[in-house]
Design a protein that fits this description.
- The protein has a domain of 195 residues: FAD/NAD(P)-binding domain, CATH 3.50.50.60.
- The protein is 29% helix and 25% strand.
- Helix 2 packs parallel to helix 8, helix 2 runs parallel beside helix 12 and helix 4 crosses helix 12.
- It is globular, with a radius of gyration of 21 Å.
- The structure holds flavin-adenine dinucleotide.
- Flavin-adenine dinucleotide binds next to helix 2, strand 4, helix 3, strand 15 and strand 21.
Length: 415
C-alpha cells in the first residue's frame, strides 16, 4: 500500500504484466481486503471499502452481475419486508435516491412506487393486514380498497384486481448498470477487479483468514469478504462453517421494448408474480418460485445459465397477463431463470464470523438482496473495519441456524 492522490492509501501495481511476472517469481500480492463475488453485494462492498482508502481486490468467477444480480427483477422495495430487514431496506432507499450521482452513472433508478395486488377478498385481507403491520413499523404506505383507486395510480393494471397496497417510495433500477457502476466507481478509487477468477478455497491459519486460492494464483490479505450468493455454503464448508441454503428457481420473461405503460413495480398477495417496465421499455415479469436441484449450465460466452421448463414459462405469461394485460399482447424477447439463495428464515447472513477472524460473510439474501445492496456494502465495510454500524445486525448472524430444526419459509418475491 502507498499514499495515493489526495493522501489516500491506494493499492500499488496489479497490472497483467507485473501480476504474471510476480507470480512466476512465486511472490504474492497483498491487498487489505479480498472480496469474492461480483454481484451487487460484492461490488458495493468494494466501493465502500475503497472509499475508505483500503486496497481492495475483487475476484469474480464469471462477468460482473452474472448470477442473481443480473437475473433479478431489480425491484427496490421496502414494503412487505420482514421487520428485521425493513430498517436495512429503508436505509438502502435513502442511498438509492442519490446513487446514480454518487457513482456518476445512469443506473435507471426510478422511485415510482410498488403495488401489491389482490385478486379476491381473501388476498385483500392479506394485504390490508400487511399495510397495518408495516405502518406500525414506520413505513409510509396505503391500502387501496378498490380497482378505481389502483388504476388512478397505474392505469395498466387489470380491472380484475380488487385491492392493493401502495408504497410510493419503492422503485426499481437497472441491475447490470448498477453493478457495473459500483465496480467502475470502486476502480476509480483504486480497487482491482479480476473477472474469470474463481476462488477454489479460502486460506486459514491458526483461526485467521490469510487469503484465497484460485486455480492460478494465491492472494493474501488479512480480510476476506464472501459475497458469493448460492456458492457461499460450499466455500465455508471445508472450514467447518455451515450455512443452510436451499436453492429456488424463479423464471423471468421479458418483452421487446414498448411505449411507456407502467411506472411502478407490482407484486402480488401470494408472491406468484411480479413485474416492472424497464427504462428500455421492456416489460420484465417474474413468476413465483420452485424448488431447484438442477444444474447451472454455461452459455457460449462462459456465463452461468439456468433454463426454466416451458410449463413454468407458460405460467409466468398467464399470470403476468392477468395482472398486467399489456404484457399478454407484447412480443417476447427473452426468457431466463435465476436462483435464490434461501436461508431457512428468509433473512440474510451479514456477519464477521466468530469462528474465523478476518472473514466477513454477506449472503443468503433469499430473493431480497438487490434493494439492500447499497446498505450491504456499507455494513460489510463496517464489519471489515470493526466499527459499529448504525443498523442492528443481530437478526443476521449465522448462529441462529445452529439449531438442527430451523424449518424453511417460502420466498416473498414482490419486486
Ligand atoms: C429472478 C429473481 C428476481 C429477484 N427480484 C428481486 C427484487 O425485485 N428485488 C430485490 O431486492 N431482490 C431481488 N432478487 C434477489 C437479488 O437479485 C439478490 O438477492 C441479489 O442480487 C444478490 O446479490 P449478491 O451480490 O449477494 O449475489 P450474486 O448476484 O449471486 O453474486 C454472487 C457472485 O459471486 C460469484 N461467485 C460465487 N462463488 C465464487 C467463487 N468461488 N469465486 C469467484 N466468484 C464467485 C458469482 O459468480 C456471482 O457473480 C431476485 C433474484 C432473482 C433470481
Amino acid at each position: 500500500m502507498a499514499d495515493g492522490p489526495q493522501g489516500k492509501r491506494t493499492y500499488l501495481s496489479f497490472d497483467e504484466r507485473t501480476f504474471s511476472c510476480r507470480m512466476s517469481l512465486g511472490e504474492v500480492l497483498l491487498p487489505d481486503v479480498i472480496i469474492i463475488g461480483g454481484g451487487i453485494s460484492g461490488t458495493s462492498a468494494a466501493y465502500s471499502l475503497a472509499k475508505e482508502g483500503l486496497a481492495v481486490v475483487l475476484l469474480e468467477q464469471h462477468d460482473l452481475a452474472a448470477m442473481a444480480s443480473g437475473w433479478t427483477l431489480a425491484g427496490v422495495r421496502q414494503s412487505g419486508r420482514h421487520p428485521a430487514e425493513l430498517p436495512l431496506a429503508m436505509a438502502a432507499v435513502q442511498i438509492w435516491k442519490d446513487l446514480g450521482a454518487e457513482l456518476d452513472a445512469d443506473i435507471e433508478y426510478r422511485q415510482k412506487g410498488n403495488l401489491r395486488l389482490a385478486r379476491d377478498e381473501a388476498e385483500a385481507e392479506i394485504i390490508s393486514r400487511l399495510v397495518d403491520e408495516q405502518k406500525a413499523l414506520g413505513l409510509d404506505l396505503d391500502f387501496l380498497g378498490d380497482n378505481n383507486a389502483i388504476r388512478a395510480i397505474a392505469p395498466a393494471i387489470s380491472n380484475a384486481v380488487v385491492a392493493a397496497s401502495f408504497c410510493s417510495t419503492d422503485g426499481h433500477a437497472n441491475p447490470k448498470a448498477t453493478v457495473n457502476a459500483y465496480a467502475r466507481a470502486a476502480e476509480r478509487l483504486g480497487a482491482e477487479i479480476r473477472l474469470g477468477e474463481r476462488v477454489n478455497d479460502m486460506l486459514v491459519e491458526r483461526g485467521r483468514v490469510v487469503g484465497v486460492r484460485t486455480p492460478t494464483a494465491t492472494y493474501r490479505a488479512p480480510s476476506v469478504v464472501m459475497t458469493t450468493g448460492i456458492h457461499t455454503a460450499a466455500l465455508l464448508k471445508p472450514h467447518g462453517l455451515s450455512l443452510p441454503l436451499a436453492l429456488r428457481m424463479v423464471t423471468v420473461v421479458r418483452t421487446r421494448p414498448l411505449p411507456p405503460v407502467f411506472d411502478q413495480v407490482f407484486g402480488t398477495a401470494r408472491a406468484i408474480c411480479a413485474g416492472r417496465q424497464e427504462a428500455s421499455g421492456r416489460l420484465r415479469i417474474t413468476g413465483g418460485s420452485q424448488a431447484w436441484q438442477g444444474r447451472v449450465e454455461t452459455s457460449d460466452d462462459g456465463q452461468p445459465v439456468v433454463r426454466p421448463p416451458t410449463s413454468v414459462v407458460q405460467g409466468v405469461i398467464e399470470r403476468g397477463s392477468f395482472f398486467l394485460p399489456a404484457f399478454g399482447e407484447a412480443p417476447l424477447e427473452d426468457v431466463w431463470a435465476g436462483l435464490l439463495d434461501m436461508t431457512p428464515d428468509g433473512l440474510p447472513v451479514i456477519e464477521a464470523t466468530p469462528e474465523i477472524e478476518g472473514l466477513v460473510v454477506a449472503a443468503g439474501f433469499s430473493g431480497h438482496g438487490f434493494c439492500l445492496g447499497p446498505a450491504t456494502g456499507r455494513l460489510v465495510r463496517d464489519l471489515v473495519l470493526k466499527r459499529p454500524s448504525n443498523l442492528s445486525l443481530d437478526a443476521f448472524r449465522r448462529e441462529r441456524f445452529l439449531e438442527s430444526d430451523h424449518g424453511q419459509v417460502e420466498p416473498t418475491l414482490h419486486g
